[in-house]
């Protein structure tokens, strides 16, 4: 029922699960392809959930002291935006350390909500003092009442997904009846997500498996070429250490909150920037979903898995199997990025373009 919320934190999460039926048709899938669309969370990404959970837990256990504490966090931007939102509401100062490659749009959103942002070299190794993680540590040591909530280690990161993201997905699937038009197995058969800290994939996997909803659910991890999170290790040899443009997924170390084992993650796929951008464009054009780059990676990785693995080919041909892909953030974060502008400006609807050219007597662009 609609009700007045105390503040913006009441509008974190509760995101829709949306059928990607046009893409399903284009790919000739028999299974259902469903997008968990996190851009509708009020801060615009899946990371609102953990920001809220980490701040609330830290207030409860006395780590954060109102009027005193200064929140410092190393992020690729979205956790920072969630923290800036929570801290704007609660009255804490925020300092975000952000690698250079992350978008200006994220920095502007952070600053608009009152956070201070310090850029760090993208290529700095995670454990060097220059990296965003290294600098956050130094700042926390030198800033009086500086507190790092530490999304890489904080159990409230995966827990937020185990308690919210996962149950929301399960609830949506369980409560939607199977029909002739939309047959459903009644359970989540596959869950695919990109991995940054790994909090999302670990927490959702626990929600699906530990609750007994579907102990044999296939959990698919998506990792960019250049990152080292995928298993087996041999997947990471091509392009190891190479720079990639996609933001928010992939690392040069294993974040402790990522349960990088077969019990949690059944299979891994590597994705390139280019295939991620193409797939993000497909989500926009075929489904009208204004998602970010990592959402493209998850769709691209899932398509590859459908084509290249035996299990993927089986699921693809299984009517009623529910394949849920996590679409972590939205276009707001990337609207001025070259990859997006190039993709958008080169998107030419041929039929209308031809008509317009005839009417105007020139190319409409
Ligand atoms: N996509 C985007 C755009 C993100 O910002 C993040 C978080 N860094 C992720 C995916 C991955 O989420 P997680 O940290 O839970 O693995």
UniProtKB/TrEMBL annotation:
Coiled coil: none annotated. The keyword Aminoacyl-tRNA synthetase does not apply. It is an enzyme of class 4 (lyase). Pathway: Amino-acid biosynthesis; L-cysteine biosynthesis; L-cysteine from L-homocysteine and L-serine: step 1/2. Residues 10-327 form the Tryptophan synthase beta chain-like PALP domain. One of its GO terms (molecular function) is cystathionine beta-synthase activity. Its cofactor is pyridoxal 5'-phosphate. Its EC number is 4.2.1.22. It catalyses: L-homocysteine + L-serine = L,L-cystathionine + H2O. InterPro entries: Cys_Synth/Cystath_Beta-Synth, TrpB-like_PALP, TrpB-like_PALP_sf. This is cystathionine beta-synthase. It comes from Pterulicium gracile.
């Amino acid at each position: 029922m609609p009700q007045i919320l105390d503040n913006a934190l009441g509008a974190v999460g509760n995101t829709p699960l949306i059928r990607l039926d046009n893409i399903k048709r284009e790919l000739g899938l028999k299974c259902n392809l469903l997008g968990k669309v996190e851009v509708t969370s009020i801060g615009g990404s899946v990371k609102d959930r953990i920001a809220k959970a980490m701040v609330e837990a830290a207030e409860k256990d006395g780590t954060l002291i109102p009027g005193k504490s200064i929140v410092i966090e190393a992020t690729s931007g979205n956790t920072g935006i969630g923290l800036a939102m929570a801290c704007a509401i609660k009255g804490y100062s925020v300092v975000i350390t952000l690698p250079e490659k992350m978008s200006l749009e994220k920095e502007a959103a952070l600053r608009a909500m009152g956070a201070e942002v310090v850029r760090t070299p993208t290529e700095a190794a995670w454990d060097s003092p220059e990296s965003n993680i290294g600098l956050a540590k130094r700042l926390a040591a030198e800033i009086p009442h500086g507190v790092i909530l530490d999304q890489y280690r904080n159990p409230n990161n995966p827990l937020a997904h185990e308690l919210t993201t996962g149950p929301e997905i399960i609830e949506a699937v369980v409560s939607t009846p199977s029909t002739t038009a939309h047959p459903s197995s009644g359970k989540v058969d596959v869950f695919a997500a990109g991995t940054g800290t790994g909090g999302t994939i670990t927490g959702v996997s626990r929600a699906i498996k530990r609750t007994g909803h579907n102990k044999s659910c296939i959990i698919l991890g998506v990792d960019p070429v250049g990152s080292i999170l995928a298993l087996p290790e041999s997947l990471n040899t091509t392009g190891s250490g190479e720079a990639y443009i996609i933001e928010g997924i992939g690392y040069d170390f294993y974040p402790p909150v990522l349960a990088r084992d077969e019990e949690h993650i059944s299979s891994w796929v590597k994705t390139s920037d280019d295939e991620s951008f193409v797939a993000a464009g497909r989500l926009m054009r075929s489904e009208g979903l204004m998602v970010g780059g990592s959402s493209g990676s998850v769709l691209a990785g899932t398509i590859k898995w459908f084509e290249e693995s035996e299990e993927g080919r089986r699921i693809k041909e299984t009517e009623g199997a529910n394949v849920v892909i996590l679409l972590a953030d939205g276009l707001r974060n990337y609207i001025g990025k070259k990859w997006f502008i190039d993709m958008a400006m080169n998107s030419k609807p041929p039929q209308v373009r031809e008509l317009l050219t005839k009417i105007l007597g020139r190319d409409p662009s």
